[in-house]
Amino acid sequence: MRTIFIGDVHGCLEELKQLIQKLNIKSDRVILLGDLINRGPDSVGVVKFVYENQFECLMGNHEYEYLKNYKKNPIYQELYQQLGETLHKWIQQRPYYIEDKNFIAVHAGLIPNQSLKKSKPAIITSIRTYKDIPWYEYYKGKKYVIYGHWARKGLTIRNHTIGLDSGCVYGKFLSAFILEEKKIIQIPAKKKYYIPPSSKI
Ligand SMILES: [Mn+2]
């Protein structure tokens, strides 16, 4: 059995299906790093696919924002309607991190010198830097930390940390990491689904 992590999908259902196929998943442990929803073509389809395959999945900042605002924000109200109660509840139950013998999985990152247990969900689902320096520069642990969230950096491997958000929704790649083989598998995006208003990613 392998342990496989998958970066931010953001509604890119076709690329996710292709990646799963390429990985030839049988009885492996699959962990998605969060941000299944928003920006891409099929948020509901992605949530449904991950749920039905019984993959594990973390809470991303986009799910966190959705859960905070689905009663008042019209876009999220619509998403709530489309998801239905079962998938909505499943999103509510997503963990903020998974820590195992060999790895820590978290959507955005770790706060230097702070235990995950004591860390605020809003921060570990959104942190990129700490005192203007990427959080992973502070990390000195031996356990692999696998995270997403930083598409602008692309695939980033440093200090036993692996950043898997390689910007699929921005027309780049959807990435997976196989822990036991230390191997990266990627699928190119079919197109640029989303162009951020204030950058050229
Ligand atoms: Mn994110």
Word description of this protein:
The protein is an alpha/beta fold. It has a single domain (3-188), classed as Purple Acid Phosphatase, chain A, domain 2. The chain is built from five helices and twelve strands. The protein has helices spanning 13-23, 43-52, 61-69, 74-92, 121-124, and strands at 3-6, 29-32, 56-57, 97-99, 103-106, 129-130, 133-134, 144-147, 156-158, 161-163, 173-178, 183-188. The strands form three sheets. The protein has a five-stranded mixed beta sheet, with helices on one face. Helix 2 (43-52) packs parallel to helix 4 and helix 3 (61-69) packs across helix 4 (74-92). It is globular. The model has no long low-confidence stretch (mean pLDDT 97). Bound molecules: manganese (II) ion.
Task: Furnish the topology, listing elements before pairings.
Blueprint: E1 3-6, H1 13-23, E2 29-32, H2 43-52, E3 56-57, H3 61-69, H4 74-92, E4 97-99, E5 103-106, H5 121-124, E6 129-130, E7 133-134, E8 144-147, E9 156-158, E10 161-163, E11 173-178, E12 183-188
Parallel strand pairs: 1-2, 2-3, 5-8, 8-10
Antiparallel strand pairs: 1-11, 4-5, 6-7, 9-10, 11-12
Helix pairs in contact: 2-4, 3-4
The structure holds manganese (II) ion.
CATH architecture: 4-Layer Sandwich
> Biggest β-sheet: count, sense, barrel?
5 strands, mixed
The helix-strand sequence is: EHEHEHHEEHEEEEEEE
Please give the domain count.
1
Overall residue-averaged pLDDT value: 97
Shape: globular
CATH structural class: Alpha Beta
Radius of gyration: 16 Å
SS summary, helix count: 5
